Amino acid sequence: MNLLSQLFTPSALPSLKRSRRGAEVKTPQEIEVMRQAARVVATVLKEIAELVKPGMTTADLDAYAEKRIREMGATPSFKGYHGFPASICACINQEVVHGIPNRKKVIREGDVLKVDTGAYFEGFHGDSCITIPVGRVTPAAARLIQVAEEALYKGIQQVRAGACLLDLAGAIEDHVRASGFSVVEDYTGHGVGRNLHEEPSVFNFRTHSMPNVKLRAGMTLAIEPIVNAGSKVTRTLHDRWTVVTVDNALSAQFEHTVLVTDDGYEILTDRTKV
Questions:
Q1: Per DSSP, what are the bridge partners of residue 251?
Q2: pTM of the model
């Protein structure tokens, strides 16, 4: 299993490059910097969603993302991270996570395209992922994308100081299962801030294998349900990065960087505000 994959795998959590102080509570000044990092990410993903068209390659999208991230005064969080060679993860159809952009990977009409990226700005990271229907997709693909996005917001709606992480996990899992899909359990969300991946692990399914962390105002979380049309089981390809569904069924993912507040949450990577 590759290193970036391990960062999302519960059994490998001790290998995380994370704060030694555990789940960090950011200061107001740090939160403002994170807003700026997250705004870069939101802007890039919004622009990519608007420019994607059949015939482009995932390498085209990667080049665009890196250019725009740097133009806005940030640096790509992913590029070079444990050796990852690109500024975005680009996954098509049955590819789940960590897809490496490639000039030979052509985007086609009807594809389900996942684009995940991060930006590092003045000491802090923002992180977000979207799933883009390329042109006209099948009704089944459209429904999968809809449910994955709904699942993200079902989880976010549970966020507030005093809530527990399994409140988020349960809301996500219940919505996905009720919709007839499966939640990928091999990869989870995470804290985000000074490091791209920090404590706590943010599960998308109920589990008793990790502490049920209580949220505090000032925490920043990357919440990211991954939803499969078929089996929840995944496998990693020979490139040691790209993860695919074991049954070649479609997969969709959405992610936001979210700030915990006293009475709720703030979506820092909100694309509607850029």
A1: 228
A2: 0.93
Q: At what angle do helices 139-156 and 165-178 cross, to 10 degrees?
A: 160
Q: What is the pLDDT of residues 121-142, one digit of tens each?
A: 999 999 999 999 999 999 999 9
Spatial CA neighbour of 193 closest among 26, 44, 40: 26
d(C-alpha 207, C-alpha 177), whole Å: 15
Distance between CA atoms of 60 and 246, rounded to whole angstroms? 28
Distance CA 80, CA 86 (A): 7
* Nearest in space to 195 (alpha carbons), one of 270, 116, 127: 127
Domains (range + CATH), the chain: 3-11+23-273 (3.90.230.10)
Quickly state the pLDDT bin for 204 (edges 50, 70, 90). very high
Query: What's the rounded Cα separation, in Å, for the pair 117 and 253?
Result: 12
| φ/ψ (deg, to 5) at 101 | -55, 145
Q: For residue 199, what are the contacts with CB-CB under 8 A and spacing of at least 6?
A: 16, 18, 19, 22, 23, 24, 190, 191
Question: Which helix (H) or strand (E) element contains residue 35?
Answer: helix 28-51
Instruction: For residue 22, name the pLDDT band (cuts at 50, 70, 90).
Output: low
Q: Which residue has the higher pLDDT, 1 or 230?
A: 230
CB atoms within 10 A of CB 235: 11
Mean pLDDT across the stretch 57-61?
Answer: 98
Overall average pLDDT of the 212-230 stretch: 97
